[in-house]
């Protein structure tokens, strides 16, 4: 099994140069980072502060297991009474992966995790934004092999955003297809 980095250097760069007529190999879009994100607001709503802390630690542990890196808790910047959010309340957990950690995670995502997703038919092309960045929603964290399903009290969704430096949606889509992401046509 070829890694993402090796495949990018040996196959993707020459194909992209040929397809998009880049003048230099440095103009070929490359992956910059992967952000794994999870919203925790609905799980913490109405809980006592000690229960909130316990739940946050539970979610942080799972995100750390699947990413290999310690996550950060994001907090509300301002109070919003309609959503019953106070300034400083935890609203999410995120982790940003770059370089080798990113490459390892993407290899695992493409080759192990996505095939384990129930009823997976491929990634919808509408998951790409106008800049060619890809966002994948995963409904259950237990599709990751590091997380034992039988020991989990909660099954929660998370979002994986793969950011690249493509200048258009077409370039980003071509990059992801050539890297082996199962994007529907």
Summarize the structure.
The protein is built from 5 helices and 5 strands. By secondary structure, the protein is α+β, with helices and mostly antiparallel strands.
Indicate the mean pLDDT.
Answer: 79
Termini separation (Å)?
24 Å
**CATH topology call:** 50s Ribosomal Protein L5, Chain: A
Point out poorly predicted stretches. none
How many domains make up the 3D coordinates? 1
Number of strands: 5
Structure description:
With 185 residues, the chain is an alpha+beta fold. The protein has one domain: 2-Layer Sandwich (50s Ribosomal Protein L5, Chain: A). It has helices at residues 4-20, 41-44, 49-67, 99-116, 169-179, and strands at 31-39, 72-75, 90-97, 134-138, 158-164. A five-stranded antiparallel β-sheet has the order 2-3-1-5-4. The radius of gyration is 18 Å and the shape is elongated. The model has no long low-confidence stretch (mean pLDDT 79).
List keywords for this structure.
5 strands; 5-stranded antiparallel sheet; 50s Ribosomal Protein L5, Chain: A; 185 residues; alpha+beta
């Amino acid at each position: 099994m070829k890694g993402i980095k090796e495949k990018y250097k040996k196959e993707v760069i020459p194909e992209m140069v040929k397809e998009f007529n880049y003048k230099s190999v440095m103009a070929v879009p490359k992956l910059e980072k992967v952000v794994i994100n999870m919203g925790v607001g609905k799980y913490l709503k109405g809980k006592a502060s000690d229960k909130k802390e316990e739940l946050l630690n539970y979610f942080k542990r799972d995100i750390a297991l699947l990413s290999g890196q310690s996550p950060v808790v994001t907090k509300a910047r301002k109070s919003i009474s309609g959503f019953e959010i106070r300034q400083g309340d935890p609203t999410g957990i995120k982790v940003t992966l770059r370089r080798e950690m990113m490459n390892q995670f993407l290899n695992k995502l493409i080759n192990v995790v996505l095939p384990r997703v129930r009823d997976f038919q491929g990634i919808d092309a509408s998951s790409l934004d106008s800049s060619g960045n890809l966002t994948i929603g995963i409904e259950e964290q237990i599709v990751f092999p590091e997380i034992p399903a039988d020991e989990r009290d909660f099954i929660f969704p998370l979002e994986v955003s793969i950011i690249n430096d493509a200048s258009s949606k077409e370039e980003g889509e071509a990059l992801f297809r050539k890297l082996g992401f199962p994007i529907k046509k």
